[in-house]
Amino acid sequence: MKKTIAFYSFIFGLAILQLHAQTIKTDVIYRTDNSTISGTILEITDDMVRYRKPNDATIYRLSTKDIQKIVYANGEVENYNLQASTIQGKQKKDISQKADIKNSQTNTSALKWMISGAMDLSHFVVDKASTTQMTLNPKVGYFFKPNILVGASISVKTDKDADSSSPWGGSGVWSESTRIVGAFGRYMQPLNEKTYVWGELGFGFGSYKVTEDDESYSFSASQFHIGPGVSFFLNKHVAIEAMLRYSHTGIGGQLKTNEVGLFSGIQIFF
């Protein structure tokens, strides 16, 4: 008697499981050969559909050329290979959309040169001593690989100070200028259609000159800089750039300076 009850309980359990499985809705792929595939759609690209069958961990792939339509579990229908006229219309629409996207995107693999001009201008007062500082940093670069830019740069920095306690004992008005010619490398990574983020590393050599009244002193100088930046493209060839730059400058083999500045400017790509 107990065995009979256990047997019927087992049969009843299987029936419940089968009924439950039938009530679970799945996506259905209708193939061009009129066969169907039930499962869960994982990913759809322009030419491929990735899906998984029920109770099967394997991921299958099917070309969209072999699909008539997909009926999703929620009832939504997506058609693929319909009549020839419909296909031609869809293809023309897709081509037009892709062309519009391509024209709006900036692809650095299609560009070869970059010219940029960045500037930092500041004025500050410390203990009644005023300082005006300006740095110009024009650059020209070449994409020798997609997203990888190398080139040459010029950095011209001027400081004009008015300080009654001048370190040279003169009238208290003195100026400094640093000119560096160097090379730089930059890696640019797209964030979206209009925005690229990048990191830059550079070094160079030049001169440092300080002038007070009629006296001038000149020294050799070297500089190293590094920092992140961002470029926002107004169109395919023109972008606005901003860079947070750390620079280390050695002057005359003795004096060393460390600075952090925010540079902004315009980039031209062609």
TrEMBL record:
Keywords: Signal. Residues 107-262 form the Outer membrane protein beta-barrel domain. The keyword Signal applies. InterPro entries: Beta-barrel_OMP, OMP/PagP_B-barrel. The keyword Cell inner membrane does not apply. It holds the Pfam family OMP_b-brl. Residues 1-21 form the signal peptide. This is Opacity protein-like surface antigen. The lineage of its organism: Bacteria, Pseudomonadati, Bacteroidota, Cytophagia, Cytophagales.
